[in-house]
């Protein structure tokens, strides 16, 4: 080692961690595979700078906590930017900034709850992509209002007819999230997680999680297609930093005792690939905008790559704004919305359970016991309820990228995560900070989406690593459930008018009436009244339920995968000793 470079593990690791060793972890309790990796815990533990119970100095807590904030930045900002289209606020940057602040505020609260009262692992809670598909389905099931109302006095139109209509859609999503979160609370409180996971295998998880990413190809393509050159640049930078340069260590000057000088080597590109890529692409767009390379006509291709078209939102947004429950109005609960959103909740639970095991292993502690697992899911349910009541348009779940940051930084301190949660809360109430994110050019966001959603899809597919893919049974289940999760929503979107639950057309009604009337004399009006009582003359609520469920690809894939995996004879997993 270079004599001018300080041994980070020796200098930053607290004395308590150097003198004591963490209890050996037991790994996951799954019977899929048994490994001998746990035998290396004693050696690996020496590489942990700050353990779960360690409390770093306050300045280190702030620095490392802000690092976790930056790590969750990309995924968290992506959610409101995707929801802006279905909500109808593509051009309302002030509303987008408020929703971004609300999501960060909810994430800060939920992270504090999880690390303090929940499973108490160093896990960051943030916006869940699994809620996006049902949320979009709910929003698109609500028809648009009239565009404008003419004013007969001066020939102008009223500008407020549609300005607040996005809140109508948001309130229905809020109600669905709040009620669906009760499912998560119930599963955590009753300890049914173990029973549920015993019947949900990789052939259910893989297509469900994969569909979370695949179903979002539309928004990703729309944003990226506004200037493919900038989008490709953003993708290139993310891949360059996260893969090719991930092991490059950047020396940071460090002052030592007795006037000595040294350097702290940090893998910055591995820690912040998204931040660096977005900032560089954003800056490049600013340079091209100043040079006049992008068109100034909004109808010309490339206009949305400009960086000066949304600067007005920084003046419109207040300096301080605290999100509060019911800020958009009173939430509206519909059966269709709740049923669709439950699929998002179940997908979030599956993802979180895996994150708990991964986080415990990276912190070199035993796998979380069943009561800690149940407490974590219960707390996530409460967090989703809070996020829904605040009007974030989304729920909360554990963030895998922040767990990965623990493995990179070797800092698993719970206090660091709690400090990061406080930073989320502070920055969330600064209105102009949230508004700043809305000024990111659309092609930059599109490049981010393409990489991020591709990774989500790959994470789902990676669940098949212990599945016997030489079995035609397993290939059928995986292929059929995934294909139908793409096909059915696409057909439903193009044939909305064909959905009619419980409806009997007039010709069929007349045939049935003629047959009945042959045996029993019955007045036609009484017959129609009976049909209406039985809801056989059409149901708007039933149509909406069917539309939302069939529009949710991960619901279709998950249900098909679950049914087929539990009914078709055979074994899905192979075993490794």
UniProtKB/TrEMBL annotation:
Coiled coil: none annotated. Residues 11-38 are annotated as: Disordered. It is found in: Membrane. The keyword Zinc does not apply. Residues 13-38 have a biased composition (Polar residues). Keywords: Membrane, Transmembrane, Transmembrane helix, Transport. Its main location: membrane. It is a multi-pass membrane protein. Belongs to the nucleobase:cation symporter-2 (NCS2) (TC 2.A.40) family. This is Solute carrier family 23 member 2. It comes from Clavelina lepadiformis (Light-bulb sea squirt).
């Amino acid at each position: 080692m270079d004599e001018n470079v300080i041994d980070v593990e020796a200098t930053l690791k607290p004395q308590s961690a150097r003198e004591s060793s963490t209890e050996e972890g037991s790994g996951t309790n799954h019977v899929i595979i048994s490994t001998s990796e746990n035998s290396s815990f004693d050696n690996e533990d020496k590489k942990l700078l700050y353990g779960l119970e360690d409390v770093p100095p306050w300045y280190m807590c702030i620095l490392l906590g802000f690092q976790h904030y930056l790590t969750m930045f990309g995924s968290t900002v992506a959610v409101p930017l995707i929801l802006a289209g279905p909500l109808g606020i593509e051009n309302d940057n002030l509303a987008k900034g408020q929703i971004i602040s609300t999501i960060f505020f909810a994430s800060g609260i939920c992270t504090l709850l999880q690390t303090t009262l929940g499973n108490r692992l160093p896990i960051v809670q943030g916006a869940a992509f699994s809620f996006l598909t049902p949320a979009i389905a709910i929003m698109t099931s609500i028809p648009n209002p009239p565009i404008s109302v003419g004013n007969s006095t001066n020939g102008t139109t009223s500008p407020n007819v549609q300005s607040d209509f996005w809140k109508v859609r948001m309130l229905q999503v809020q109600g669905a999230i709040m009620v669906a979160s009760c499912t998560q609370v119930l599963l955590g409180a009753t300890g049914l997680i173990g029973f549920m996971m015993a019947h949900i295998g990789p052939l259910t998880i893989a297509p469900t999680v994969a569909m979370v990413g695949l179903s979002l190809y539309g928004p990703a393509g729309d944003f990226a297609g506004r200037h493919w050159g900038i989008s490709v640049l953003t993708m290139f930078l993310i891949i360059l930093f996260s893969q090719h340069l991930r092991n490059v260590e950047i020396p940071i000057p460090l002052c030592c005792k007795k006037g000595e000088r040294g350097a702290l080597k940090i893998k910055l590109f591995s820690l912040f690939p998204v931040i660096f890529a977005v900032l560089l692409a954003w800056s490049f767009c600013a340079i091209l905008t100043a040079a006049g390379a992008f068109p100034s006509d909004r109808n010309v291709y490339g206009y949305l790559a400009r960086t000066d078209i949304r600067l007005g939102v920084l003046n419109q947004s207040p300096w301080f704004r605290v999100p509060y429950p019911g800020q958009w109005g009173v939430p509206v609960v519909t059966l269709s919305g709740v049923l669709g959103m439950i699929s998002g909740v179940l997908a979030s639970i599956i993802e979180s359970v895996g994150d708990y095991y991964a986080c415990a292993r990276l912190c070199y502690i035993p796998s979380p016991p069943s009561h800690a697992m149940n407490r974590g899911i219960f707390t996530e349910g409460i967090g989703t309820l809070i996020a829904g009541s605040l009007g974030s348009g989304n729920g909360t779940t554990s963030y895998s990228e922040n767990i990965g940051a623990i493995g990179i930084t070797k800092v698993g301190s719970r206090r660091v995560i709690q400090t990061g949660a406080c930073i989320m809360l502070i920055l969330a109430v600064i209105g102009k900070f949230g508004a700043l994110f809305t000024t990111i050019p659309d092609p930059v966001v599109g490049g981010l989406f393409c990489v991020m959603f591709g990774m989500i899809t790959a994470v789902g597919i990676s669940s098949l690593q212990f599945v016997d893919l030489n079995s035609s049974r397993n290939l059928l289940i995986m292929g059929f459930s995934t294909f139908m999760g793409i096909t059915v929503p696409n057909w439903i979107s193009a044939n909305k008018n064909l959905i009619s639950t419980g409806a009997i057309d007039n010709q069929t009604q007349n045939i049935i009436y003629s047959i009945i009337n042959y045996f029993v004399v019955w007045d036609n009006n009484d017959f129609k009244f009976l049909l209406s009582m039985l809801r056989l003359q059409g149901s708007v609520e039933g149509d909406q339920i069917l539309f939302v469920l069939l529009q949710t690809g991960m619901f279709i894939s998950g249900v098909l995968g679950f049914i087929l995996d539990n009914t078709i004879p055979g074994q899905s997993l192979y075993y490794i000793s």
